[in-house]
Design a protein that fits this description.
Helix content: 10-25%
Structural class: alpha+beta
Number of helices: 3
Number of domains: 3
Radius of gyration: 49 Å
Distance between the termini: 143 Å
C-alpha cells in the first residue's frame, strides 16, 4: 500500500513525500551482499535498490543517473528525482517541476472555484491551494471545493437549535422563527417567544379602542341631550307654549262637506 503526502519546499520544485511499506523482515531473508546502497550522497536502503536483485520489486527500483556529472537517483517511469530516503521513518522525498512562474493570490488560476492560495513559510514566494472556509474537497479541481452544510452538524454551527440554522454558501446564519426574537445562537440571546408580550399589547390596544369608542358614544349622547334641553329652554323663554296654545284655539278644522267654493 502506498500513500502520497504533499509538501512544498524548494523554489520551482514540489517535493512529494512518499510513505511506503518497509519490509525489513523480508530484507533480512534475502542475500543483499554486494548491493550498492547509495547514489551520490543519497542513501538507498532496502526495499529500494539500484538493481532488481537489490530491491523488493520493480516498483522500488532506482536508477542512478550520471549523465549530469553528479549521480542522481531517479524512480518511476517519469524519472522523478529522489532527494531523501528514510528507512526509520518509512519516508521518501521526491521532487518534480511544477511551474517556472510565481503567481499572486489573484493571478494563481491553478486553484479551482471557492478556493484560495496560501503562501509557503519557507520564504520561496510560492503558494499552494486550499478550499475557503466553509468549503471542502479538492482545491485543484475546477469545482472541487464544495459547500459544507454546517446546519447538518451541530458541532459546526453555533445555533441554539437546528431549526434556527440557515445554510449559506461557505457559511451559515442563525435566525429566529416568526413570533420569536433574538440572535438564535448558543451563548447569545437565543430565541425568545414574543407571543405573551404581543398578546398583552393586543389586549391593551383592544381595551384602549373600546374605551375610546365608549367615551365617544357617551359624549355624543350627552351632547344630544343637552341640545334637546336647550331647545326646550329657549322655547319656553320665547313664549313658545302660549303661542302654541293660541294657535291651537284659532285653528279650525273643516271637512270636505263644509268647504264650498263661492
Amino acid at each position: 500500500m502506498v500513500v502520497l503526502r504533499f509538501h512544498f519546499h524548494e523554489p520551482l520544485w514540489l517535493s512529494t513525500t512518499l510513505l511506503f511499506l518497509l519490509l525489513a523482515a523480508s530484507g533480512d531473508q534475502l542475500d543483499l551482499s554486494g548491493c550498492v546502497r547509495h547514489c551520490g550522497d543519497i542513501d538507498i536502503p532496502y526495499p529500494f535498490g539500484l538493481t532488481e536483485k537489490c530491491c523488493l520489486d520493480h516498483n522500488f527500483l532506482i536508477q542512478c543517473d550520471n549523465s549530469s556529472g553528479h549521480p542522481t537517483p531517479l524512480i518511476g517511469t517519469n524519472n522523478l528525482t529522489v532527494t531523501r530516503i528514510s528507512a526509520e521513518r518509512s519516508e521518501m522525498s521526491i521532487q518534480f517541476d511544477v511551474t517556472r512562474d510565481c503567481y499572486t493570490n489573484q493571478e494563481y488560476d491553478t486553484c479551482g472555484k471557492n478556493s484560495r492560495t496560501q503562501g509557503l513559510d519557507d520564504g520561496s514566494g510560492y503558494y499552494y491551494c486550499l478550499c475557503k472556509d466553509g468549503f471542502q474537497g479538492n482545491p485543484y479541481q475546477p469545482d472541487g471545493c464544495e459547500d459544507i452544510n454546517e446546519c447538518e452538524n451541530p458541532s459546526l454551527n453555533n445555533c441554539s437549535k437546528t431549526q434556527y440554522c440557515i445554510n449559506m454558501q461557505g457559511s451559515y446564519t442563525c435566525s429566529c422563527p416568526s413570533w420569536f426574537k433574538g440572535d438564535g445562537r448558543r451563548g447569545g440571546t437565543g430565541c425568545k417567544n414574543q407571543l405573551p408580550g404581543i398578546r398583552a399589547a393586543i389586549g391593551i390596544a383592544i381595551g384602549f379602542i373600546t374605551l375610546l369608542i365608549s367615551g365617544t358614544w357617551i359624549y355624543l349622547v350627552s351632547k344630544q341631550r343637552r341640545l334637546i334641553k336647550l331647545k326646550e329652554k329657549f322655547f319656553r323663554q320665547n313664549g313658545g307654549i302660549i303661542l302654541q296654545q293660541d294657535t291651537n284655539e284659532m285653528a279650525k278644522i273643516f271637512t270636505d262637506v263644509t268647504i264650498v267654493p263661492k
